[in-house]
Design goal:
Distance between the termini: 99 Å
Organism: Streptomyces lunalinharesii
Keywords: Membrane, Transmembrane, Transmembrane helix
Order of helices and strands: HHHHH
Structural class: mainly alpha
Protein name: MFS transporter
Shape: elongated
Length: 150
């Protein structure tokens, strides 16, 4: 009978109080926080991605006027204008993708049940495909930049 009484007492006791949700800190963060704690790894990864992207971009952009003049034959001024148009178009395309299409794609992946791991795995696969294409490009296979520029 003691079992029945303990059950009755447990049933009649008030529920445990709900735990309060901790208040969020609305103060602005400091720059040094990017290099501490949980943000350190994220900062390193994003910095490495930006470095790799800009290294490739500026490497190509530096050689573009020479490649235009040697391959297609325009004068240097026209080649520089083509390079400027190439850079401006790349910037505008990046902004369009980042501000319009990027959130749509990420939102669709998250809504479909994918997490951030899936998104980063897809970005890694895209980078790998780009690397394979760059390594096996017919125009540059086995040739140095000096050979391409001559």
């Amino acid at each position: 009978m003691s079992r029945g009484r303990s059950w009755a007492r447990a049933r009649s006791s008030p529920p445990a109080p709900a735990t309060a949700v901790p208040a969020t800190d609305s103060s602005p963060g400091r720059l040094r926080e990017l290099f501490q704690g949980r943000y350190l790894r994220r900062t390193v990864v994003v910095s490495a991605l930006w470095f790799a992207a800009y290294y490739v971009n500026y490497g190509i952009a530096t050689w573009m006027p020479s490649l235009y003049t040697k391959t297609f034959g325009p004068d240097l001024t026209t080649a520089l204008v083509y390079t400027l148009l190439n850079n401006v178009t790349g910037l505008l395309g990046t902004l369009v993708i980042a501000l319009i299409l990027g959130p749509v794609v990420v939102g669709a992946l998250l809504a479909a049940g994918g997490g951030l791991t899936l998104i980063f795995a897809q970005l890694a696969c895209l980078a790998a495909v780009g690397a394979v294409i760059a390594l096996f490009a017919v125009e540059t296979k086995g040739r140095t930049l000096a050979q391409l520029n001559s």
